[in-house]
Specification:
- The complex is a heterotrimer.
- By secondary structure, chain A is an alpha/beta fold.
- Chain A is built from seven helices and ten strands.
- Chain A has a single domain, classed as P-loop containing nucleotide triphosphate hydrolases (Rossmann fold).
- The longest helix of chain A has 18 residues.
- Chain A is globular.
- Helix content of chain B is 37%, strand content 22%.
- Chain B is built from eight helices and seven strands; from the N terminus they run H-H-E-H-H-E-E-E-E-H-H-H-E-E-H.
- In chain B, strand 2 and strand 3 form a beta hairpin.
- In chain B, helix 4 crosses helix 8.
- The N and C termini of chain B lie far apart (62 Å).
- Chain C is built from 14 helices and twelve strands.
- In chain C, helix 2 crosses helix 11, helix 2 packs antiparallel against helix 13 and helix 9 crosses helix 11.
- Chain C has two domains: 188 residues, no CATH class; 175 residues, no CATH class.
- The interface between B and C is large, with 40 and 52 residues.
C-alpha cells in the first residue's frame, strides 16, 4: 500500500459567494498510485481544475480527508502546503505561466532557488535538452512559440525531481502538432521514467491514451457513460 | 544686545563683497550709456582679457605700444575688460570702455566713450581718490580729451610723462601737488585706447566681429 | 541565478516607470543631503568666521546697536567709544591669555560702492592684534615703523581696489589725511580684508579721538571662566561684554525659521518619494499577480515572495540613493548660490558642506526608506494564495 501517493476520501470544495454557494467538488474518493497516468476529464465547469488544484495542494479542501504521501494535509495551511509542493510536485499550466523577464534556462532554474538547492544549472540544461530546447536556453518566453514555452514549463516542473506532475490542460492553448509533441513528452516521462502524472483535458484523443480516466460532472466522479458529452 | 555684533558682522560682510567687485565695468551701464550717448537705443556688453585675446605675445605687443611695462600685480593679463558697444537700431554709434589705473592715492577708474572711428567723445573718472579729485573731475579738464584718438597719444611718452608735440602736449596738469595722478590719467587713457584698438583687431576677443567700423 | 537578479530583472521590465521612481527617490535624497550639508556647512562656516575674529569675548561701549549700525551704514560716525582706562584695568586680569585694543573709525568715501559712496573702515591697532590673529600675515611689507607713524597696513581686498603696494600713499577723504602704505595682509576671507589698519595712536590722533577705543578683543586662558569674567565686568560703567558663543547662538536663532522651512521641504520630498515607491511596487505586484501565484506553485514560500518584492523596493531606493548623492555633490554650487541670496546672514566659506559621513548616512537612509516602503507591497504579494493568483488573475 505504500505506493499510494494520494488518497482522497470524500473530499469537497465549497465556494461561498455572496449570492450563492458553489460546490465545485463533491464527495470525491480517489487514490493515485506511483507510476499512474491519470486524466481528469469532464465538461467545462465540472470541477476538473479545482480537483487538480486540491490534489496538487494549491488549494484547500472544505471537507473530507486528503492524504499526500501518507501525510494528512486536510487541515494544513498554505505555509505548510508549500513545503509539501516543493520537491514533491511539479506543475504545468494551460497558459504556460513562465516568468517573462527570465530566460528559458532561468525559468527552469527558478524552483531550485526556492527549494534552496545548490545551483542546478547542469540539471536545468539537461532537462531543456531532454524536451528538445537545448538550442533556445537563452531565449525569453516571448521569443518562443507556444509549444516551446510549454516544453520549458515541463522542464521547470521537473527540475526539483517531483514525485507527481500535475498538468492543467497542457495542450489546451496549442495547435494539434505542438499539442501532440507535448503529450508525447509527458507520456515518455510516465513510461520511461515512471513519473506519476495527473492532467486535466478536454481532448478525448489524449484522454484515451491515459492509463486511467476520471470523469467529473458537477463536481462528482461519475462512470464514463454518464459523462455523455464526451462519449 | 548681541544683535549688535550680528549687525556689525553683516555690515562688514557687505563691505567685503563690495570690495570684491573690482573691475573696470560701468557702475550703472543703463544709465551711463544713455548719458554718454543720448541717441542710443541699446548696447552690447563684451568682456575680454588679454590672455584670451592673444596671451603673452599680445601683452608684450601692448607694452611696446604703450612704452611701459605692465604692473605685475594689478595689470595681470587675466583682468577682464568690459566693452559696451553702443547701438542705435542696428548701427554701432560708439563704444564705452574703462581701465583701472594705479593713481597717486588709490586706484583710478578711467572711462572713455569713443566714436566708431576711435575718437574720444567723452571721458570721466568713475573713481579717483585724491585731495585734488575735484580739479581732475572738472569738465574744464576732462573735456580737453574730446576729439583725441590713439594717434594723438603716440607722441606721448608715458615713462617721461611728457609729449614733445601734438595735441596731447597741450594738456596741462590741473593740480598743484598731484602730478602723479595727472601722468597716471594720461597713461591710463593711452592704455585704454591701445587695448580698444588691439581687441578690435583680435578675432579671439569677439569684439571686432560686429562690424560698424 | 540569484534572488537579486530575479528582483533586478523585474525592475528592468518597466524601465521608464522604474527610472521615474528612482528619480523621485534621487531628488528626495539630493534635497536631504543638500539641506543636511547646509546645516553642517553653515555651522562650520559661521564657527570658522567667528573663530577668525580671533577673540572669544568682545568688550564694547554700551549703546543701542541698531542705531550705531544704521549710522555706520549712512556713513556717519555713530560708533560708541569707551575710555582707554578700561583697557588698562582689564589687561592685568590673570584669566586673560591675549587681549587687543581697537579703535574703529569710518570715513565716507563717495567713490566707493560704484559711485554711490560707501563707508571705509579704518581700524587702529597695536602689535597685540597680530598675537590674537596669527593668520594675519603679510603679503608684502610689514608692521608700522612706530606706534604713532602716519602709516597704514591694508587688507587684501581694499589694497587690490586701490592698487596699493608698500611705499604708495593713501588718502583719507574726511580728515584730509595722506598716509603711507607699509604692508598688505594676505587674504583672510573675513571682513578684515576690507579694512585699512593704522597704528592705534595714529588713529586716535587723526580721527580726533584721543584716549578712546571702540572695542577690546579678548581670548581667555580657559573659556570656562567666561561667566565669572563677564560678571566682574558687569559693574564697569559704560561697557558691555559680548561673547562670540552667544553671537553664534543669536545667528542660529535667526536662521532657525529658514531651517524649519527647509526641513519641512525635505520631509515632504521624502514622503512623496516613499509614496511613489510604494505605488510603483504595488502596481507592479498587482500586474504580476499570476506570476507570483506561479512562483508559489513552483515552490516559493511567503517569505520568498516577500523577499523578492522587498529587494525590488530596496534596489530602487539604493540606486536612487546613489543617484541622489551624486546629484547633491554636483549641485553644491547651485544650492550655495541660492542660499546666499536667500539667507539673512551668510558667513564666508563653504555653506554646503557634504561629508563622506553624510553621504553614507543618506545612502543608508535611502535603503531603510526602501525597506519600509517595501513592507506593504511585499506583504500584499506574499499573502496572495496561489490558486487565486493563478486562476483569478486573468
Amino acid at each position: 500500500m505504500d505506493d499510494i501517493l494520494i488518497k482522497a476520501e470524500n473530499i469537497s470544495k465549497v465556494y461561498r459567494l455572496p449570492a450563492e454557494v458553489i460546490r465545485a467538488v463533491r464527495d470525491v474518493d480517489l487514490e493515485i498510485r506511483a507510476g499512474e497516468f491519470i486524466a481528469i476529464m469532464g465538461p467545462s465547469g465540472s470541477g476538473k481544475t479545482t480537483l487538480l488544484d486540491i490534489l496538487g495542494c494549491l488549494d484547500r479542501i472544505s471537507s473530507g480527508k486528503l492524504g499526500i504521501l501518507g501525510r494528512d494535509v486536510s487541515r494544513l495551511k498554505e505555509s505548510s502546503l508549500v513545503g509539501i509542493r516543493r520537491g514533491n510536485m511539479g506543475f504545468v499550466f494551460q497558459d504556460f505561466l513562465l516568468i517573462p523577464t527570465l530566460t528559458a534556462l532561468e525559468n527552469v532554474e527558478l524552483p531550485l532557488l526556492f527549494a534552496r538547492l545548490p545551483s542546478g544549472r547542469r540539471k536545468a540544461i539537461g532537462l531543456l535538452q531532454k524536451v528538445g530546447l537545448g538550442h533556445r536556453m537563452g531565449h525569453l518566453p516571448k521569443q518562443l512559440s507556444g509549444g516551446e514555452r510549454q516544453r520549458v514549463a515541463i522542464a521547470r516542473a521537473l527540475v526539483t525531481s517531483p514525485k507527481i506532475l500535475f498538468a492543467d490542460e497542457p495542450t489546451g492553448n496549442l495547435d494539434t502538432k505542438s499539442g501532440d509533441q507535448v503529450f508525447h513528452i509527458l507520456k515518455g516521462l510516465n513510461q520511461k521514467d515512471g513519473l506519476t502524472i495527473v492532467l486535466t483535458t478536454h481532448n478525448n484523443k489524449l484522454g484515451s491514451q491515459a492509463g486511467r480516466v476520471v470523469y467529473l460532472k458537477d463536481g462528482s466522479v461519475v462512470p464514463r457513460e454518464e459523462s455523455s458529452l464526451y462519449a | 544686545m548681541f544683535r549688535s555684533v550680528l549687525v556689525l558682522l553683516f555690515f562688514a560682510n557687505l563691505c567685503a563683497n563690495a570690495f570684491a567687485a573690482v573691475g573696470c565695468s560701468l557702475n550703472d551701464p543703463d544709465r551711463d550709456v544713455k548719458r554718454l550717448f543720448p541717441e542710443s537705443t541699446g548696447y552690447r556688453t563684451t568682456f575680454v582679457t588679454i590672455k584670451e585675446a592673444g596671451g603673452e605675445a599680445l601683452e608684450r605687443d601692448i607694452e611696446e605700444r604703450l612704452g611701459d611695462k605692465f604692473d605685475t600685480v594689478y595689470e595681470s593679463p587675466d583682468v577682464p575688460y568690459a566693452y559696451y558697444t553702443v547701438l542705435k537700431g542696428k548701427d554701432v554709434i560708439g563704444r564705452i570702455h574703462g581701465v583701472n589705473q594705479k593713481g597717486q592715492y588709490g586706484g583710478l577708474q578711467l572711462i572713455l566713450a569713443t566714436d566708431p572711428a576711435g575718437r574720444i567723445v567723452g571721458f570721466y573718472y568713475q573713481k579717483i581718490s585724491s585731495p585734488e579729485s575735484a580739479v581732475f573731475r572738472n569738465k574744464a579738464f576732462t573735456d580737453l580729451f574730446k576729439g583725441l584718438s590713439l594717434e594723438d597719444f603716440s607722441a606721448y611718452d608715458v615713462k617721461e610723462g611728457a609729449a614733445n608735440e601734438g595735441r596731447v602736449s597741450k594738456i596741462q596738469d590741473p593740480s598743484k601737488n598731484s602730478g602723479e595722478d595727472f601722468r597716471a590719467t594720461l597713461r591710463g587713457i593711452k592704455k585704454n585706447l591701445i587695448l580698444l584698438d588691439v581687441f578690435l583687431h583680435a578675432p579671439e576677443s569677439g569684439l571686432g566681429k560686429e562690424g560698424g567700423k | 541565478m540569484t534572488w537579486l537578479s530575479v528582483a533586478f530583472k523585474n525592475l528592468a521590465r518597466k524601465k521608464v516607470r522604474s527610472l521615474l521612481t528612482i528619480g523621485g527617490v534621487a531628488i528626495a535624497v539630493a534635497v536631504l543631503v543638500s539641506l543636511l550639508g547646509f546645516d553642517a556647512g553653515y555651522q562650520r562656516a559661521l564657527t570658522g568666521n567667528i573663530d577668525k575674529m580671533g577673540y572669544q569675548v568682545l568688550v564694547t561701549a554700551k549703546g543701542c546697536p541698531y542705531e550705531a549700525a544704521t549710522l555706520m551704514l549712512q556713513g556717519g560716525g555713530g560708533l560708541r567709544y569707551m575710555d582707554e582706562a578700561i583697557y588698562e584695568k582689564i589687561v592685568k586680569d590673570p584669566r586673560i591669555e591675549k587681549i587687543t585694543p581697537q579703535l574703529v573709525a569710518t570715513a565716507f568715501d563717495k567713490e566707493r560702492q560704484g559711485g554711490q559712496g560707501g563707508v571705509v573702515l579704518y581700524m587702529g591697532i597695536d602689535p597685540s592684534y597680530l598675537a590674537l590673529k596669527p593668520w594675519a600675515t603679510f603679503k608684502t611689507g610689514g608692521w608700522f615703523s612706530g606706534d604713532e607713524a602716519d602709516e597704514a597696513i591694508m587688507g587684501y581686498e581694499v589694497a587690490e581696489l586701490e592698487q596699493r603696494l608698500p611705499g604708495d600713499q593713501i588718502f583719507i577723504p574726511n580728515v584730509d589725511k595722506v598716509l603711507k602704505v607699509v604692508g598688505i595682509f594676505n587674504r583672510t576671507g573675513t571682513q578684515d580684508d576690507g579694512v585699512i589698519f593704522l597704528p592705534l595712536k595714529t588713529a586716535q590722533r587723526i580721527f580726533g579721538l584721543p584716549g578712546k577705543l571702540t572695542g577690546i578683543g579678548i581670548k581667555l586662558k580657559d573659556l570656562g571662566t567666561l561667566g565669572d569674567f563677564e560678571e566682574d565686568l558687569y559693574n564697569e560703567p559704560g561697557i558691555q561684554v559680548i561673547s562670540m558663543a552667544q553671537v553664534k547662538g543669536t545667528i542660529f536663532n535667526l536662521i532657525a525659521s529658514a531651517r524649519t522651512m527647509t526641513n519641512a521641504v525635505a520631509l515632504i520630498a521624502v514622503v512623496i518619494a516613499v509614496i511613489g515607491v510604494i505605488n510603483t511596487i504595488l502596481m507592479s505586484v498587482f500586474e504580476r499577480t499570476k506570476e507570483i501565484g506561479v512562483m508559489k506553485a513552483i515552490g516559493a514560500s511567503r517569505l520568498d515572495i516577500f523577499r523578492i518584492i522587498w529587494m525590488e523596493t530596496t534596489l530602487i531606493c539604493l540606486i536612487g540613493g546613489i543617484a541622489g548623492d551624486m546629484m547633491a555633490i554636483a549641485g553644491t554650487h547651485a544650492v550655495e548660490f541660492i542660499l546666499r541670496r536667500v539667507l539673512p546672514y551668510a558667513p564666508s566659506g563653504q555653506l554646503v558642506f557634504i561629508t563622506l559621513r553624510l553621504l553614507g548616512i543618506s545612502f543608508i537612509g535611502a535603503v531603510i526608506m526602501g525597506l519600509i516602503a517595501g513592507i506593504y507591497p511585499a506583504f500584499r504579494a506574499s499573502s496572495m494564495r496561489p490558486v487565486e493568483a493563478i486562476r483569478l488573475g486573468d
